[in-house]
Request: fold
Amino acid sequence: MEEYYPLLMSTSLFRGISLQGVQELVGCFKPQVKRFRKGEILLLFGYESHDVGILLEGQADGIKNTPDGAEVLITHLGPGDIFGDVLSGSSLKSPVTILARTDCIAVFFPYDKIIHPCQSLHFCHTQLMQNLVATISEKYFALNRRVDLLILKSLRAKLCTWLLEEAARQGKDTFSITLNRAGLADYLNCERSALSRELNRMQNEGLIELYKSSFKLLDKAALANQAAH
Amino acid sequence: MEEYYPLLMSTSLFRGISLQGVQELVGCFKPQVKRFRKGEILLLFGYESHDVGILLEGQADGIKNTPDGAEVLITHLGPGDIFGDVLSGSSLKSPVTILARTDCIAVFFPYDKIIHPCQSLHFCHTQLMQNLVATISEKYFALNRRVDLLILKSLRAKLCTWLLEEAARQGKDTFSITLNRAGLADYLNCERSALSRELNRMQNEGLIELYKSSFKLLDKAALANQAAH
DNA sequence: GCAAAAGCGTTGCATTGGCAACAAGGAAAC
DNA sequence: GTTTCCTTGTTGCCAATGCAACGCTTTTGC
Reply:
């Protein structure tokens, strides 16, 4: 477990906590480390869970099955990403399945240990609880941004908004993304073909420049303007 | 303040906490009680806040301004409803404005007092922290359900899904709602006219029965079936 | 009690974007 | 090296639905 302390310290759950603090907390919580083979399930849709999971190694996806049996990608997880946090403190069922895309190692912290300050009242425990709340809140805000995108009426507006946000997030006007076209279409809730068509139009209009999965914003003012329509 | 203890005990933040516990916590936190006149602002869009608010009296709305200046209703709050909770533990700006629709009284609990177990280690404090996490998580899940609705492709599917969920939530197949047509159209992200048109069609097809803002589900199997398309 | 505003339904029209089908290039599997 | 699959682009067609306009009814404000 020790080898993962630096990774833990870089996660949103342990940020601001010293190495010593992490050691104390891990010693106190006795979290379980589990290995998963590619294709195995870390967290199953429709079940309760009262553990906060952190992916230590490998890649996993949060997926959901639509009524007609198709599989929708919700999130992608890499080392250091947290899962099950929103779920662990509620009595609700998981809205997603977390599926290992490669062999994975994850560690599971029992929620009730996190939320109960123990006798020894570790100084860092308060920080951990704050971090838990902040982590969940951030997921709420991320979802909220997605809702803001989804309620835009035109695909053009969605794309403009998304491009500007992504540029701001990456801090540059030329950027590339990991999502492929189908994934982006899912995220924006549109057809892949319609997405291609619209990106093409925007390129022709001189708003953006495309090369594979990299984007270059040429006219941010126009983009911002069209984001409102 | 004492007069509101029963109301507090019925909120999601204080549920499961005894009257004595509420007294201890209130005594310890010294929350501020504020009065607002109709039209005044309880929480302003774009600002940080580190208080958890509970509406004690009156009615308030969570609203957001669209780029083109219009006002979109996000939530409606009545006595006992919590606001600012998701915000208080993060360093982000409020995505909404909370606006008093009538004269209001609200109480504000400082987040850092909630999250820091104090010296006297009140037994009920742990419960309160759990409740805070659960309250935020519930808001996340509510938003998540909305996303699930929004990504459905057809208005018919959205309506079927929403009707079934609402019936389940209210525990009966005949129910009425507080949202008006425009509000429901907003929630489902469609045109008010299109909503009317579709509801009418569904009534003609014998799926539902309408009377003003009350709905009667006549064929839940068919509704469930069409929710998938 | 009256005027103004809000809520709801209705309809015609124009457009968006969903759907299906196909092609081409590149990556992966064998 | 060959085959298969995956990803992306492209295009025609058309149904769903956004938009605008109007009228009726109910509610609110004065």
